[in-house]
């Protein structure tokens, strides 16, 4: 944590008390720091806001319980979620297997909620989920990626391939359904809401890839493959939700 700013006479300005992490009482620290954030009393350096430090420390303090909750929700969804069970079966038909050994909950420091690797499986960012429904959408998204990689020869450096993967995953996973966009993203479009959401999410994903220069470049790649990839609902007969 950065040292407190110094007043002109050399005395430190009063700040919210921050005990060493190993001595914190998580319950007291959580409530006191939350109120400080709400009241605007938490400040930090320009590069590392104190709010960010707080949430990082709380993730560290609660890592075990956060990952355990993620594991429990993963196991529940594998057993009871219709879309997760369907995608798991479809991956199995192509010779793959998704289970608790390669669908892994971990603490993440970036802003994404999950990821897929053909060699390692699915990563679930346990500390990024708002609730079980959010985790279900993320698992479905990454399972669509797994299915696509098993079904077709995906070239990692081919940006058109990567854009198509992102369009399909956002379309089929349910993360762009109207209720989620309306209540969690404040996206209130009535017409072509699904298309708008899928384009937005696919473009944002492409912006993070090497070789993509800016948002205009990312949107151009998404538009080039849009017609074929948005209408391809395999392995579903139609968009599930």
TrEMBL record:
InterPro entries: Peptidase_M76_ATP23 (IPR019165). Keywords: Hydrolase, Membrane, Metal-binding, Metalloprotease, Mitochondrion, Mitochondrion inner membrane, Protease. Its EC number is 3.4.24.-. Residues 1-24 are annotated as: Disordered. Pfam families: Peptidase_M76. Coiled coil: none annotated. It is found in: Mitochondrion inner membrane. GO terms for biological process: mitochondrial protein processing; mitochondrial proton-transporting ATP synthase complex assembly. It is a peripheral membrane protein. It comes from the Eukaryota. GO terms for molecular function: metal ion binding; metalloendopeptidase activity. The keyword Membrane applies. Its main location: mitochondrion. It is an enzyme of class 3 (hydrolase). One of its GO terms (cellular component) is mitochondrial inner membrane. PANTHER family: MITOCHONDRIAL INNER MEMBRANE PROTEASE, MITOCHONDRIAL INNER MEMBRANE PROTEASE ATP23 HOMOLOG. Has a dual role in the assembly of mitochondrial ATPase. Acts as a protease that removes N-terminal residues of mitochondrial ATPase CF(0) subunit 6 at the intermembrane space side. Also involved in the correct assembly of the membrane-embedded ATPase CF(0) particle, probably mediating association of subunit 6 with the subunit 9 ring. Belongs to the peptidase M76 family. This is Mitochondrial inner membrane protease ATP23. It comes from Dothidotthia symphoricarpi CBS 119687.
């Amino acid at each position: 944590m950065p040292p407190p700013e110094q007043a002109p006479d050399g005395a430190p300005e009063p700040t919210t008390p921050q005990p060493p992490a190993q001595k914190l009482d998580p319950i007291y620290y959580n409530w006191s720091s939350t109120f400080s954030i709400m009241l605007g009393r938490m400040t930090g350096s320009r590069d590392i806001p104190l709010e960010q430090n707080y949430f990082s420390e709380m993730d560290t303090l609660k890592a075990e319980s956060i990952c355990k909750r993620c594991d429990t929700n993963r196991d529940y969804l594998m057993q009871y979620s219709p879309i997760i069970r369907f995608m798991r079966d479809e991956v199995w038909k192509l010779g793959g297997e998704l289970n608790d050994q390669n669908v892994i909950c971990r603490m993440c420091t970036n802003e994404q909620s999950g990821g897929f690797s053909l060699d390692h499986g699915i990563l679930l960012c346990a500390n990024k989920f708002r609730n079980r429904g959010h985790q279900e959408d993320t698992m479905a998204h990454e399972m669509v990626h797994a299915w696509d990689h098993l079904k077709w020869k995906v070239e990692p450096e081919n940006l058109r391939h990567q854009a198509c993967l992102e369009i399909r995953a956002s379309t089929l996973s349910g993360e762009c359904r109207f209720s989620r966009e309306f209540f969690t993203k404040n996206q209130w479009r009535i017409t072509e809401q699904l298309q708008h959401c899928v384009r937005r999410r696919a473009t944002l994903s492409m912006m993070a890839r090497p070789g993509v220069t800016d948002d205009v470049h990312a949107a151009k790649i998404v538009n080039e493959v849009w017609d074929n990839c948005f209408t391809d609902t395999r392995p579903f007969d139609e968009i599930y939700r």
